[in-house]
Amino acid sequence: MARTPAARRSAGAAKKPAAPKVGFVSLGCPKALVDSERILTQLRAEGYQTTPTYDAADVVVINTCGFIDAAVEESLDAIGEAMAENGKVVVTGCLGAGPKSNIIRDKFPDVLSVSGPQDYTSVMNAVHAVVPPAHDPFLDLLPPQGIKLTPKHYAYLKISEGCNHKCSFCIIPSMRGKLASRPVGEVLREAEKLVKSGVQELLVISQDTSAYGADLKYAKGQWRDRDYETRMLGLCEGLSDLGAWVRLHYVYPYPHVDHIMPLMAEGKVLPYLDVPFQHASTRVLKAMKRPAASEDTLKRIRAWRNICPDLTIRSTFIVGFPGETEQDFQLLLDWLDEAQLDRVGCFQYSPVEGATANALADHVPAEVMEDRYHRFMEKQQAISAAKLQRKIGQTIEVLVDEINEDAASVGRSWADAPEIDGKVYIQGKLKPLPGQRLKVKVVDADEYDLFAKLV
């Protein structure tokens, strides 16, 4: 007679133990998000499951950010909440390294472990000490691309760690170390897995994408894979063969970036550059210890646009840097008129503990910074709005992010990185799913977004 499940259990079949549960909080920039994805992938490989509630977790991991004061406060709040509701907390990330790491132990002496970014071993060892891995052979196999925290159709691709610059307002090198590039073959294999899993957009990130490979000493035949060299151009050539959108972030305006422009003009890499110019006054840039002068960057922009007229450039700037005069600020506004950037973010200077800029003289009063911020944004808003108006009537390709049955669906063009740039609102009911690419005709625009109809 066939035995029922109940009969099998009563006959002594071993009950599968519950998988240990981990709560996970990821804070900070896309580079930190990639660190979180790698930790979660390792946790899943060892049989751990994630849980959205503190009380159900055997242990909580918090990946912190420690760059500016607001990020530090957010990280400390998250640690405090997890300690209050769970008590078994592992802390990692940028706040766990550099000059601010002692804050965590001073404020929360009972945290289980404190480690810096990319220190995956310390995180796993701390988790193991609380609850051993399941090592259950019946758990589902890991997806080949690992655990992702982004929507299925786009992913961040981190090509290096650390940075060799010594910008006076930044403490990232003290947290993430010096530049360490990943071999091009390793990066391309990860990218191939992502594309095969359905990723339509690869967002290339690092602290300095233009410096990719510069830390490696070359000998004949070294640091190559399938004819691609571990350099920025070789990486872009390799990624361009995968058929996905390739978007470049954190690109410094070095001369060799010119060599990427033909790939963008041919549509092999998105005609989009995220360049952290930060300022235009030579005097302020020198105080910031930035590696470029404003007249050079304008020449670079003109050279890029001569090769690739459709190029979209986004950037970030700091106003109110110590010693910035009204004349310096006016130079920045004049530079914006010349540069005609497409997308711009602006921050008011905020002291960062451990940054050398704190010791500079003539800190700008808060009310002056606020005034300059609004004048800057008003100037750039007019530029951005005019550039978007010129797109009305054009047919463009968009990547669909969200389908709405009762309202306009949401997509992005090559000019729009997720979460930081504008959107394209597509009128009419759409049958495609998020992650598909469509041709749409632009019918209207405002200061930041486009409105379109399906072609």
CATH superfamily placement of the largest domain: tm_1862 like domain
- The CATH architecture of the largest domain: Alpha-Beta Horseshoe
Note the quaternary state here.
Answer: single chain
Main-sheet strand order equals: 2-1-3-4-5
Secondary-structure-derived class: alpha/beta
Q: CATH class of the largest domain, please? A: Alpha Beta
Percent of residues in helical segments? 25-40%
Number of helices, where a helix is a run of at least 4 consecutive DSSP H or I residues:
13
Shape: globular
Cα-based radius of gyration, to the nearest Å: 24 Å
The largest sheet, given as strand count, sense and whether it forms a barrel, is: 5 strands, parallel
The mean pLDDT is 86
In percent terms, what proportion of residues is strand?
15-25%
Unreliable sequence segments: 1-16, 136-141
Q: What is the rounded distance between the termini?
A: 64 Å
The CATH topology of the largest domain is what? Answer: pyruvate-formate lyase- activating enzyme
In total, the number of domains comes to 3
Query: Strand tally, please?
Result: 20
Describe this entry's structure for a reader.
It is a single chain. The chain folds into three domains: 21-137, Rossmann fold, CATH 3.40.50; 142-390, tm_1862 like domain (pyruvate-formate lyase- activating enzyme, Alpha-Beta Horseshoe), CATH 3.80.30; 394-454, Nucleic acid-binding proteins (OB fold (Dihydrolipoamide Acetyltransferase, E2P)). The termini are far apart. The strands form six sheets. The protein has a five-stranded parallel β-sheet, with helices on both faces. Helix 7 packs parallel to helix 8 (232-240) and helix 12 (326-339) runs parallel beside helix 13. The protein has 455 residues and is of the alpha/beta class. It is 33% helix and 20% strand. It is globular.
